[in-house]
Amino acid sequence: MADFDFPGGIMPPERKTLSNQAPLVKAPLPARVMLPLTQHVGQPAEPVVSVGQTVRTGEIIACAQGMISAPVHASITGTVTAIEERAVPHPSAAVGEAKALCIVIEGNGQDDDWQRMPPLDWRSASDEALLERLQSSGVVGLGGAGFPAAVKAQVRQRHAIDTLIVNAAECEPYITADDLTLRTYPGDVIEGARMLARLCGAERILIGIEDNKPEAVAALRQALSTSNDTTPVELKVVATRYPSGGESQLIQKLTGREVPSRGLPADVGLLCHNPGTLLASLRAVRDGEPMISRIVTLTGEALTRPGNLEARLGTPLHALLSLAGLRPARLSQLILGGPMMGFTLDSDALPLVKTANCLIAGTADEFPPAPPEQACIRCGACETACPASLLPQQLYWFSKSREHDKAELFNLFDCIECGACAYVCPSHIPLVQYYRAAKGEIRLHEREARKAEHARHRFEFRQARMAREEAEKEARRKARLQQARASRPAPEQRKAAVSPTPSDTPQSDSQDSAAELKKLKIAQAAAKAAVRKAERALARASEGGQDPSADVNDLETQLATARENLKATETRLAALQSRTAPAATQPASTTATGPGVPASQSMPTGTTTEDTAKQVRQRKIAVASAQAAYRKAEKALESAAAQNDDATLAAARQKFERAQGNLDRARKALEEAETTAHEPKDTSTP
Amino acid sequence: MLEWLTAHGILAATLALLGLAVAFGALLGFAGQVFKVEGDPVVERIDALLPQTQCGQCGYPGCKPYAEAIVQGDDINKCPPGGDATIAALADLLGREPKPLDGEAQDIPRVAYIREEECIGCTKCIQACPVDAILGAAKHMHTVIVDECTGCDLCVEPCPVDCIDMLPHPDLAKQWHWPRPPGPGHRPSQPIAATLIASDRQPAPEERAHG
Ligand code: SF4
Ligand code: SF4
Ligand code: SF4
Ligand code: SF4
């Protein structure tokens, strides 16, 4: 049917008729909701309500933090009764506690008092208004990991998008949420697709759907025939084969394009959205309704009334299960997500979250315990099944023996964890679990390495700072010493210098200091080069803009270290020069015509004007970067003040003050350097 | 000159080679000066493997000094924060035998917390911290920047009022990742993914359509 195809794939039993027979129904209002602040990819949201506060449906209760984040809204009308750590659905729950900060709202009976945002007409609204609306309504990708829709819509800034793909394949067994969404709201989904297509600049829309959903296909055809819009929409019905709903696989099947290894669909000009996300986006814009509900499949043989429900987020899962007629005696496993990629839950007291598309209450017959793992017989079945053209067997060996570098070389991170390989493996090896563990270990290791690197830079900075302080102390001490010596009567000094025994000392001393001077000069040059390098790196990073700020911070530390090092060597150099210069001008030292003396005398005068020019330039850069830091700190302070959080405010203020001080110092240094540059040469002797 | 050269082929060849040798030698020397590597590369590579906690438990004032000591021939098993993983990595890099850790292994990452109401603002902890992770001025309460703290313990000792606690790192939960399956002969620890519908196994489609 389609012109292209992806390799591999499997055809597990679909089991979709279990839940796609009943029409979509709205679940009654829950008496209490639990809303985790981590229902999306990125930074957790920050609560903006307090315990005891009454909230209305749709009111924002936690706002987004940082660049990739999404706000959370009250899904019922009622009173906030707790903001605390509660168990949330997460794979780690199977091995230990998975807790996250949740806002608990106790409902006011059947009272559902909405607080909507003003409706927008997406055709006439500006891009900024639409993006702002998507961001403030908390819409996240409902099919996969929960990537904030507003962030995804901004992809246009860096990639040219030509096609928006509606991923309605829904290839995983049991799940029918997208199917029912499309059957019930075909027009709205298409409208939502048109809106997001406009927002990302796509010229056409492709809908990819598996041929096991004839009713949804018919509903879409019907809706398409009645809609009158210029953006061409193409409906492509593809053969049912798992995992055609994998982003890369669907793209390959529909367009023949291949997403590069570790790349994004946007790299090949595409953007994928799930029908549920499109519906939620449209509702957020057209009706001003933030994301407070989702369509979820309730299925499995332990339920008497399986089907799809449109339920408020935060509804306890047991409430949903009893709506679907759970027979607890038959329940053996509760699975969140599909049977291939989902995970088991050990409690039904968890809340419904934005990313939960399916809840399976399985019986023991349906999901028998996994057979014990056996040794790999190198049959190659996994390789045949892999839709990502990987070598699952090789990946298995490398993951098992912790040869992470080799696993990465074999593109472990291109594995979509579809489970096709494990499904066909005759030795019942839980291959995906090995890959997931290896990926986790690699990520953890990378994180630790980054952290260690940062700590090292901080440590180096401290060393450099202490070295500078030491050098400055030394310089001051020497200056005092010299002053004391200069104030001594001259004849005595001359006598001491002329007398034969100590006459070598100045010579060897000056030779020594000449060698040291040379060493210091080299060190100074190296330190200067390091400063320049760090400056360039920092400039590059801050130009990149999108770089995680941690990197910039780290580079700033490195730059500061380089500057401290430079200052330390400069201080030492200055001290040494001031020591050798008077020594050279002393009458007695005319005897000391060591090779170092003329050099030490001529070098400063020769280089100082050049040096001051360089210094001026350098200090200008310093001022500029200090200004940037100042502005950043200012902004941070403002946002901290807006949030009313004392701890962050104090930290931000401290940072701000530091930045201010730095800026002032840098400005003063620049002024100094400029005046010395303009003054006549005689200031060259330090 | 040219004629003389063509007449004495062997000499000409020697001269040409000599000229080339001199030219390339100069080039190499120049490149060596220009692309000079700062510091000792082995030390840097060892330092990159150390955990950078800067705690001094190895007996040196920081990880870099320990890295230098290792190059001088010191043992590779003196870093407790790094544990066996670091020893293994060092053994691998240096071609030495891995040894059991000299000291007590650390269980979980910790960070310092200053009980702020008890802090008297003596600045002693600031002076002790190897990574400048403590903020505060004299006579004002101090705070630890959690993200910068390496959990080295060095600030605990100097505090005259014992107001610093080492607590588990708040990010611990975020560091969770899928555990490894128990291996052949066992049932997988988690009945997840494809094992769930194992009873319905069907073979992969026979004819696979490529591209
Ligand atoms: S889980 Fe990974 S390796 Fe296995 S078939 Fe899917 S993509 Fe391939
Ligand atoms: S399918 Fe299983 S037994 Fe066969 S090669 Fe792959 S991992 Fe080994
Ligand atoms: S013991 Fe501490 S200072 Fe020494 S190498 Fe390990 S982390 Fe660094
Ligand atoms: S705050 Fe304390 S424990 Fe943390 S790095 Fe500094 S000295 Fe070490």
Nutshell version of this structure?
Chain A is of the alpha/beta class and 686 residues long. Chain A is 48% helix and 13% strand. The radius of gyration of chain B is 30 Å and the shape is elongated.
Give a structural overview.
The complex is a heterodimer of chains A (about 675) and B (about 210). Chain A is α/β, with parallel strands linked by helices. Among the domains of chain A are: about 15-345, NADH-ubiquinone oxidoreductase 51kDa subunit (Rossmann fold, 3-Layer(aba) Sandwich); about 605-680. Chain A has helices spanning about 125-135, 150-155, 175-185, 185-200, 215-225, 245-255, 275-285, 315-325, 380-385, 390-400, 405-410, 420-425, 430-485, 490-500, 505-545, 550-585, 595-645, 645-680, and strands at about 25, 30-35, 45, 55, 60-65, 70-75, 80-85, 100-105, 165-170, 205-210, 235-240, 270-275, 295-300, 305-310, 330-335, 345, 360-365. In chain A, the strands form four sheets. A six-stranded mixed beta sheet of chain A has the order 1-14-13-17-15-16, with helices on one face. In chain A, helix 3 (about 175-185) packs parallel to helix 5, helix 15 (about 505-545) packs antiparallel against helix 16 (about 550-585) and helix 16 runs antiparallel to helix 17 (about 595-645). The longest helix of chain A has about 55 residues, at about 430-485. Residues about 490-505, about 585-610 and about 680-685 of chain A have low confidence and may be disordered. Chain B has about 210 residues and is mainly α. Chain B is about 30% helix and about 5% strand. Chain B contains six helices and four strands, in the order αααααβαβββ. Chain B has helices spanning about 1-5, 10-35, 40-50, 65-70, 85-95, 125-130, and strands at about 110-115, 135, 145, 165-170. In chain B, the strands form two sheets. Chain B has a two-stranded antiparallel ribbon. Chain B has a two-stranded antiparallel sheet with strand order 2-3. In chain B, strand 2 and strand 3 (about 145) form a beta hairpin. The longest helix of chain B has 26 residues, at about 10-35. Chain B is elongated and about 95 Å long. Classes of the chains: A alpha/beta (about 675), B mainly alpha (about 210). At the A-B interface, helix 9, helix 12, helix 13 and helix 18 of A face loops of B. One iron/sulfur cluster binds near residues 390, 416 and 431 of chain A.
